[in-house]
Design a protein that fits this description.
Length: 442
């Protein structure tokens, strides 16, 4: 059994990881516990590790993990299929599935149904998912229910009571609601089981839905199933499967202006921005590499419009806009325009300030490092210039807003097979600066 201080330490570590996605430092533990030394915090960590509550990587900062407790599984009847679209005749195919006991209500009877259709996508319920239902004859407005219509048709929708009727509202803006004067509530959705494929085997992620409209997502399970994998899917639909406030950094180079042909695929920059904003943690960063096509001697302004849209309509701040200067393939250049050798890299911030910012790895050598500038002076915002004074120039200086990269000619033949050549190392400095750890090997 843990002592009081050790339990306080353990509870703080769990809360910190859930909020930030990484573990606290010894200094942060010391500050939270209001103890005198880091060594005392380290002693509590060693005790928790010995007792089996945590595991950690030796000599690695922020490398504490909470050990997973073995969950108690409960068998729930799998009674058939339900429509997340137009009502369909109830289909019964009895069986059972195992569900963690913690994902069920504390009381009541439960059963499971497989979902057919896409009318609840925006609620995080997709075709092929399995929903866990708590049997009950009533539900509050806005709750997702199993509704029986005409005595033999069932559907999965949000229920709303209106003046003289019920409205069954889909969570899909392209599908109309269903209106009816009579229905029977057969239960309320409390959990969703989503199937993933990881390393050639199927795994499940469980999403718990609270009694209110809010969704409490088993973040660790979902993110673990996506870590170090390539997910080949529509990016907007894919991000909808990720938990809110779960990602530290996003780096993307989206298709724009139909410059390349991607088998007819069209790309929605606004929808992409909305989902990126949702999945980013408070203080998270999104970086986009983008340029504008030239049509009839005029730029499309797609990059500028997207920046304004993401800031004004989605909620981002524009932290900075970096210029990516391309070396290698020089791009299109004609005798009536300049050679295009750059792209924009707007850096978007969610929240008031970055949750993590470390520009030390990004510093570059100063041309006159080590020398003394004899006539250095500071100009104030009022326009007044202070008296000149000697200033010693540091060996390293902060990187500016123009970054040079070799687009091709780096020996990679595989890269040349892609329709949009791109430097693979461009994401590294962003990861070094705006992520709390270097577990990507950068």
């Amino acid at each position: 059994m843990l002592k009081k201080r050790q339990k306080q330490t353990f509870d703080f570590i769990k809360k910190f990881i859930n909020k930030h996605g990484y573990s606290p430092s010894l200094e942060e533990i010391k500050k939270h516990l209001r103890i005198s030394s880091v060594s005392t915090a380290h002693h509590h960590i060693l005790k928790l590790e010995k007792e089996g509550y945590i595991k950690r990587e030796k000599n690695e900062p922020r490398a504490i993990e909470i050990k997973e407790e073995k969950e108690e599984l409960v068998k729930v009847p799998l009674v058939g299929t339900i429509a997340a679209g137009e009502p369909i005749e109830a289909i019964e195919n009895p069986g059972t599935i195992e569900v963690p006991k913690a994902q069920l209500s504390k009381s009541g009877e439960h059963y499971a149904l497989q979902v057919r259709g896409n009318s609840m996508n925006e609620e995080g319920i997709y075709d092929g998912d399995t929903v866990i239902i708590r049997k009950q004859p009533t539900a509050e407005n806005g709750e997702t229910v199993v509704a029986l219509l005409n005595n033999d048709e069932v559907t999965l929708k949000k229920i709303y009571r209106e003046k003289n009727r019920f409205r069954l509202q889909p969570a899909n803006s392209s599908i109309d609601p269903i209106y009816t004067k009579e229905l029977i509530v057969q239960g309320k959705v409390i959990s969703v089981i989503r199937h993933f494929e990881e390393s050639g085997r199927e795994v499940d992620a469980i999403i718990s839905i609270e009694t209110k409209d809010d969704k409490k997502i088993n973040r660790e399970t979902i993110l673990k199933n996506w870590t170090n994998t390539i997910q080949c899917m529509d990016c907007v639909e894919g991000m909808k499967r990720l938990p809110d406030n779960s990602i530290d950094l996003v780096v993307t180079s989206p298709p724009y202006d139909k410059i390349r042909k991607y088998n007819g695929f069209s790309y929605d920059l606004h929808a992409t921005g909305k989902e990126i904003y949702r999945i980013l943690k408070e203080g998270g960063i999104a970086v986009m590499v983008i340029q504008d096509q030239t049509r009839n001697f005029g730029k499309t302004l797609t990059s500028f419009r997207t920046i304004i849209d993401w800031c004004d309509n989605i909620g981002f701040k524009l932290f900075e806009c970096v210029i990516y200067k391309k070396h290698g393939a020089e791009g299109a250049w004609w005798n009536k325009r300049f050679r295009v050798d750059h792209e924009y890299m707007p850096i978007f911030l969610k929240g008031e300030r970055p949750q993590y910012f470390n520009k030390e790895p990004l510093k570059i050598p100063s041309k006159w490092g080590g020398r003394t500038l004899t006539g250095g002076a500071t100009r104030l915002t009022s326009g007044k210039t202070l008296k000149a004074r000697p200033i010693k120039i540091n060996p390293l200086k902060c990187r500016g807003t123009i970054w040079d990269y070799v687009t091709c000619g780096d020996g990679s033949r595989l890269k040349h097979q892609h329709p949009a050549t791109f430097p693979a190392t461009i994401a590294i400095p962003f990861s070094q600066c705006w992520r709390p750890s270097t577990d990507l090997g950068v």
